[in-house]
Amino acid sequence: MDLPILTTTTEPMMRTRQPTTTLEDQRIPVRAKLAATWTSFMFLYAYVDILNFFTPGVIKDILEGKVFEFDLSQTFSTTALTLVAIPIFMVVLSMTLPAQANRITNLTVASLYVPVTAFNAVGESWLYFYGLGIALELTLLALIVRYAWTWSRTAPSATVATSPDRETVRAQQQA
User: What CA–CA distance (Å, rounded) separates 73 from 67?
Assistant: First the structure.
């Protein structure tokens, strides 16, 4: 027969944490929402173009110097790079611009990209493929407009206006 071993300890007993039934739903800053949505937009934008290479005849047309109805040229490539670079920069700008400039820039750029995105459907034979890509891109642009449009405003706090600056606080602490 085994006897229990009695010990004394000064260590506190560890308790296991009881699982909670709800997850903490943290508020996501508007800047992060905008940057994430522009990032998602860019993935779609790029992958629709990449997957388009698998459409019959596209590679042959490119090798012959044509993209859609356009001749491959430095002007075409510069325009295409610009159309891709603007949303790429919007990821960074959404995180770094001051709030008012950020809001206006996101509203303007997303609104201008709606017709640019819709234009991609013109003359395409693979309407399911392009239709889905365009619908998803337009959904993301609509989210960007919504996030920027509904960006909450706060009134200046009276405590902020009357709070002492760092130097004053530091001088009081040293005294």
Answer: 10
Spatial neighbors of 52 by CB under 8 A, at least 6 apart, are 58, 129
pTM: 0.72
Residue range 131-147, pLDDT digits in tens: 999 999 999 999 999 99
Whether the CB-CB separation of 144 and 37 falls below 8 Å is answered with yes
Query: At which residue do the structure tokens 């609104």 appear?
Result: 111
Q: Retrieve residue 170's tokens.
A: 């530091």
* Pairwise CA distance, residues 91 & 34, whole Å: 7
Distances in whole angstroms, Cα of residue 155 to Cα of each of 80, 98, 159, 160, 161 = 42, 16, 12, 11, 11
Three-state DSSP state, 8: coil
SS3 67: strand
